[in-house]
Recover the amino acids of this structure.
C-alpha cells in the first residue's frame, strides 16, 4: 500500500466509539488491578471495532515450535528471506486534536499484561516511566489518547556515499518524524509502560507498512534479519529511532524524544537502564549472495537491505521476574573492522556477541569511529555506545537453514 493511500482511508474511516467493557476480550474480571482493567479496555475496543476476537491463548494463531514466534498476538509471519513480514492487529488511538490514528503494541512492562495481550514482556521499559524519554497517555473508551503525533508525509531519502564503505551516506532524510511530544514508550495511568508505534494517520503510513486493512484492523510490516547466539533469522521490527541517520539506516520513525530514555552503555537488569546493548556493523562485506554480507555498508550499497545486526538475547516471556533483561530499546554499539583486518580479507559475518568478543580481543574489530568518546560496555564486547536507540521489537527466531 502506498503511504499516501492511507491518508484517504483514514479520512474516510470515521472513528469508532467503543465501549470500555470486555467486548469479547475473553479476559476474566477476576484478573483485577488497574493495569489489567486497562488491558481489558484496549482489547475489548479492538475486538468490537475489528469483529475479531481479541487475543487469548485459545484464540491466538497456533504457530509451530519451529516458527518460534515471541509476539503471540501476531496474526501471521512470513519468513521469506529478504522479504519477511509480520501481520499485527492495529488499535485505534486519538491524536492531538481528536483525529483517529492506528497503532500497534508489541511489549508491556508488566508480565500479566504482556501475557494477557500476547506481547513480549520487557520489565526494563518501566525505567523510562517518569523520564523525558517516555510519553504519558490517557485511556478513553478503549482508545489511547496521545499527546504527541507522527508526521509520515516526508519522503524517505538516502544516497550512498563513495565506495568501499558507502558510509556515511552522501545525503539522507528520514521518512517519518515524531513531534516533540511523541514517544513509543507510552505510560498508562496505571504506570505500566507499553511499546506502541503509530503506523498510520492522516499524514500517511509508516515506511515499513506493506499493507493495511482498515476494516479488519490489521497491518503488515517488513521485518529485518539479524544474528543471535550463532543463529540467523532473529527477525525484528524497527519502529522508531532516536537519531536521524540511524532512523534512515534502519527505516524507522525519527523520534527525538526517545533519546532521553535512560541510559546509554548500561545493559544489565537492575542497573536502572531501560536499554539493552546490541551491535550493528559499520563496514562489513557488501557482496550479496556471498553469505558474508553484513553492515551499514551492505545496506547502503544494496538498496536498504537488512544490515543483519548482532543481538545478545531473545525475549524471555516465560520469565516473569524483574531479572528478565529483555528490552526492545536497543542501545547501539556500532562495531568496525580495523584497516588491518580489511586489508587481510578477514571480514565476515559476525554471528554472536561471543563471536564479537573474540574478534575484538584479536584486534580485528573495534568501536566504530562514529561512536563518541567514553567508557566501553562490557556487555557488548567492551565497545563504546553510539548513543542511538533503535526500538526493535523482536517478533520471532525461526529454525530455518542459514542463507
Amino acid at each position: 500500500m502506498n503511504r499516501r493511500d492511507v491518508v484517504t482511508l483514514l479520512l474516510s474511516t470515521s472513528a469508532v466509539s467503543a465501549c470500555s467493557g470486555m467486548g469479547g476480550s475473553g479476559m476474566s474480571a477476576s484478573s483485577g488491578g488497574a493495569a489489567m482493567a486497562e488491558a481489558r479496555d484496549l482489547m475489548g475496543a479492538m475486538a468490537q471495532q475489528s469483529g475479531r476476537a481479541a487475543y487469548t491463548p485459545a484464540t491466538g494463531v497456533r504457530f509451530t515450535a519451529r516458527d518460534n514466534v515471541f509476539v503471540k498476538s501476531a496474526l501471521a509471519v512470513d519468513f521469506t528471506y529478504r522479504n519477511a513480514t509480520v501481520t499485527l492487529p492495529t488499535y485505534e488511538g486519538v491524536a492531538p486534536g481528536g483525529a483517529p490514528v492506528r497503532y500497534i503494541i508489541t511489549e508491556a512492562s508488566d508480565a500479566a499484561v504482556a501475557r494477557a495481550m500476547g506481547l513480549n514482556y520487557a520489565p526494563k521499559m518501566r525505567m523510562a516511566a517518569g523520564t523525558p524519554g517516555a510519553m504519558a497517555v490517557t485511556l478513553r473508551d478503549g482508545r489511547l489518547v496521545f499527546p504527541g503525533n507522527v508526521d509520515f508525509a516526508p519522503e524517505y531519502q538516502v544516497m550512498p556515499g563513495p565506495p568501499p564503505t558507502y558510509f556515511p551516506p552522501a545525503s539522507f532524510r528520514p521518512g517519518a518524524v515524531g513531534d516533540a511530544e511523541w514517544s513509543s514508550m507510552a505510560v498508562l495511568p496505571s504506570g505500566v509502560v507499553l511499546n506502541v508505534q503509530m503506523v498510520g494517520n492522516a499524514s500517511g503510513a509508516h515506511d515499513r507498512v506493506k499493507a493495511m486493512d482498515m476494516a479488519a484492523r490489521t497491518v503488515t510490516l517488513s521485518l529485518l534479519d539479524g544474528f543471535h547466539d550463532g543463529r540467523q533469522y532473529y527477525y525484528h521490527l524497527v519502529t522508531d529511532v532516536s537519531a536521524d541517520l540511524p532512523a534512515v539506516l534502519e527505516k524507522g520513525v525519527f523520534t527525538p524524544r526517545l533519546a532521553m530514555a535512560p541510559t546509554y552503555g548500561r545493559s544489565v537488569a537492575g542497573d536502572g537502564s531501560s536499554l539493552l546493548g546490541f551491535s550493528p556493523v559499520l563496514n562489513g562485506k557488501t557482496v550479496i549472495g556471498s553469505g558474508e554480507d553484513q553492515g551499514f555498508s551492505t545496506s547502503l550499497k544494496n538498496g536498504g537491505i537488512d544490515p543483519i545486526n548482532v543481538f545478545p538475547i531473545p525475549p524471555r516471556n516465560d520469565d516473569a521476574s524483574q531479572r528478565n533483561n529483555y528490552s526492545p530499546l536497543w542501545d547501539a554499539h556500532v562495531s568496525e573492522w580495523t584497516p588491518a583486518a580489511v586489508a587481510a580479507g578477514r571480514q565476515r559475518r559476525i554471528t554472536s556477541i561471543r563471536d564479537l568478543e573474540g574478534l575484538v580481543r584479536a584486534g580485528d574489530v573495534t568501536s566504530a569511529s562514529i561512536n563518541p568518546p567514553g567508557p566501553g560496555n562490557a556487555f557488548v564486547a567492551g565497545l563504546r555506545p553510539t548513543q542511538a536507540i533503535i526500538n526493535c521489537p523482536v517478533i520471532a527466531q525461526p529454525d530455518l537453514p542459514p542463507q
Summary: Residues 61 and 394 are 17 Å apart (CA to CA).
